[in-house]
Write a structure and sequence with these properties.
Cytochrome C; signal; single chain; 91 residues
């Protein structure tokens, strides 16, 4: 009985770590930090120019990697950073 119970607990604890092939393919080649930069220190520490360069490189990958909605998000972020940079340089 203890052996069955411990096996069930082990299976239950490992279940959240199972990743499907579709999930892996969906994120392959994407820079998830640029898409969802909430908790990514690598993007938060970049200068505006570095962020714009990374966004440009990701936008160049196009629809072969990103969905249309994700491309819109990246383009919007690039436009925002471009506006910020223009405001800084003009003042």
């Amino acid at each position: 009985m203890k052996k069955i119970l411990s096996t069930l607990i082990a299976v239950a604890l490992s279940a959240p770590f199972v990743v499907s092939a579709a999930d892996l393919k969906a994120s392959a080649g994407k820079d998830l930090c640029l898409l969802n930069s909430a908790n990514c220190t690598s993007v938060q520490n970049d200068s505006i120019q570095e962020k714009m360069s990374k966004l440009h490189n990701e936008l160049q990958k196009g629809s072969s990697v990103y969905t249309a909605e994700e491309l819109k998000t990246l383009a919007s972020k690039q436009d925002s950073y471009q506006s910020i940079l223009a405001a800084i340089l003009n003042n």
